[in-house]
Request: fold
Amino acid sequence: MVDLSQYKKDFPILSRTVRGGNPLVYLDSGATSQKPEQVISAEGDFYRKHNAAVHRGAHLLAEEASAAYESARENVATFIGAKAAETIFTKSATESINAIAYSFGNSDSSSKFSIKAGDEIVVSEMEHHANLIPWQQLAKRTGAKLRWFEVTPEGRLDLSKLSDVINAKTKIVAITHQSNVLGSITPLKPITAAARAVGALIVLDACQSVPHFKVDVKELDVDFIMFSGHKMLGPTGVGILWGRETLLNEMSPFLFGGSMIDSVTMTEATWAQLPQKFEAGVPNMAQAVGLSAAVDYLNKVGMKNLHEHEIALTKQMLDGLSQIQGVNIIGPVEIKDRGGVVSFTIDGVHPHDVGQYLDQHGIAVRTGHHCAWPLMRKLNLVGTTRASFHLYNNADDVIKLLDSVSEVQAYFKVKI
Amino acid sequence: MELDSLYQAVILDHYRKPHHKGLQSGFDIQVKHNNPSCGDEVTLNLSISDGVIKAISWDGVGCSISMASASMMSDLLLDQSYEDANQILAEFVELMQSKGQSQGNEALLDDAVAFAGVSKFPARIKCALLGWMAYKDASSQLMA
Reply:
């Protein structure tokens, strides 16, 4: 197992104690990751030393702020193998998805992005609400039909009806790169091939992938990806929308206002070049700079090392949970094409009660439907308990969780 | 342990063997409430005649707190007058908002004072109130 133990000390929050006086065992990075001192300092230093509105102002601070913001963009773009012009700062991945859904929905009927009755939009049953509801509502507004891939009992995407789900009517395929509940990684090749064959646009929700393993947009045959800064050691309030330059150039902006214009009269406006065209208003500069520091940090650790580390912990968790009677792993038990997210249920104990017990022992997990309610309904579950990893977790964290799971069964007097 | 103040034995008893669970037919009104943050659901059937709660039954999925609370609520409210039931409801809501400062009025709440510990766990207050809010909704619609 690759040794990442030297990094944990960089995360100040991980040295605090929590309920019951216990040291914190943070297993909720799928919801949000913790931040290293380097990121906290970078965001703070921007405010302390360089704060000014970017791309405007004739003073030194404005120059420094603009340089820091644009260099953050370069850094994040390089991290995903993209060009800076195609890499747009938003306030969240959720905003990124909504931005393109609204852009498509607002398009002229002659535009290639226009969605109308008779068109089809494809998602999957394992989408996070953020990659379901914007498309569901776009379909409602336009009269298009929402289609979806189902999930197999094992917790993989069911591609057996691929040629039916993606067909000549398909305009958009919006799919997650990795399920935030099941941990399963989407096999993209057959999906992108089918989408390309019918000329559909491909949107990839990369919220659970970019923070955990190397993602290069040049290697993915997709048109848009989005991810959030706060899940990848960065600050809250910053997300990324990446899109192919040719497409972004042809698309209409969704948010209008300052910064995103080329010229304005009382009755007309024209748009700035990429990426400013999609960044209306004074942007989240300090957060972008913080995200850039997070990218530096991840580069220092190495995404390959990080992935290997998380896979080792995931395997340890899956093996451990498999050996406890009355515990069900929700998602693939095989480590193949799987990320560092492990959902499970304990017979006779509701996930919320599991989470409460774990919290009392310092272990922070997520419980409930994980913003994937349709998936829970499909799996006939009210919710799950989910442990998710990042680089600061270690084998002891997994052992503590496994021990506590057995204690939960005793505490709630589950008959095994 | 702090946790024991949340999971009192009487709460876990009601969770394992809930009362009035299973929807009865012949109701005056049916309401369905859920807790969107965790997915818990309660469906409640209620009949009120001559100002008295004649029948109350419920079904649902949820954690020990939400299910036990719906169970004890049904015990407490059945055969009460609408006015008395409202007083019990108000007392329970006040207990939940007490941030651990109240023991609860046992004369009104009986075993449900066991939920006093819940008020120290902000994330669980909505669980304890799920069934009660379903009752409040159903009864106020009936008595409107």
